[in-house]
What does this fold into?
Amino acid sequence: MTRAPAVVAAVSSVALVAWNNAVLPALRLSSRGRATAGTVLAVGVTGAGLASGLRRDELGLKNFRAGLAWGSAAAAIPIAGYVVALATPSLRRRVSVPDEVRHDFAEWAAAHIPFGTVVTEELLFRGVLTALTDRALTPASATAVRASTFGLWHVHPAHVAGDSVPGTVAFTAIASLVFDWLRARSGSVLAPALLHLAVNVGGALLLRRIQVTAGTGEVPLPPV
It folds into this structure.
């Protein structure tokens, strides 16, 4: 039995962590540049995976109807939570709005988050890394590797944003388990992508609405 699949999965995991915590920050790109670089990387790696023999079903690039159904149902949960928070003054006051603001909100919400975050991370983690780890490891080990890699992927962004690094790593590792579950249930990366999109864009819109209500008209800078 060859150890090659396990080696490829391990190298891929390390490479993803290195990309988001060392390589990408070293490039010193703008927010638009980072979103573009991430999207190009994810699409390129996915294409390379297909060319190397990974199947579309392994990459989650099938079953889009099931992905849409599962993803829409999952996305409704955070959206409902944001609506309730916005409509409830006591909850709205609990939302922390940082002092730092950005002025390119429309581009951020319409392009940077959907492509630079959601498409990039879902193709890389629920697509390629899922295919590689599922081939090489037991289901439990594969899930653990993906969760830990996804958590460590967010170390530098958490540091830049001034968030708790251990807390962010733990939270995003748990989020990976949820995204993985949706991916497995639906057989499609579309399901976790829709939930991911609802959480991130919905959160941005919530903050935008709170700041507009408060009269600032600006939104906080996101993690890079």
